[in-house]
Design brief:
By secondary structure, the chain is an all-alpha fold. The protein contains 3 helices and no strands. The protein folds into 2 domains: 1-35; 36-114, no CATH class.
Length: 115
């Protein structure tokens, strides 16, 4: 490699990303006038929830691969790699910790909204 980014796979990926961002911007510009804020924020919050679960599962797996966390098989859990769910006790516990934190925040927010 000579240090040039174009026209490698990374260059094409950057071009594709730029095009996707332009399309998303144009769609949101048009829908922004009609899209209720509640729907938008529920959608983005749901997406962030899924991303945080994937990060927790894959992060725990990578810590296990590095030898920083123990690895205990848990055969009752299926392997769903794209969701970051692995049949290992530590990865599932990390994801349960994230879910419990999010549930606590939702309950706390709904309680303070009623007050």
């Amino acid at each position: 490699m000579n240090g040039r980014i174009w026209p490698t796979a990374a260059g094409w990926s950057l071009l594709a990303l730029a095009l996707v961002l332009v399309v998303v911007f144009l769609v949101l510009q048009q829908m922004g006038r009609r899209l209720p804020y509640g729907v938008f924020f529920v959608g983005t919050a749901s997406l962030l929830l899924v991303v945080s679960l994937v990060f927790a599962g894959k992060g725990a797996l990578f810590l296990q691969m590095a030898g920083w966390l123990p690895s205990t098989d848990w055969t009752a859990v299926p392997l769903i790699g794209w969701l970051g769910v692995y049949p290992l006790r530590e990865t599932v516990l990390a994801q349960l910790l994230v879910v419990s934190m999010i549930a606590g925040l939702v309950l706390w927010g709904s309680r303070s909204a009623r007050a």
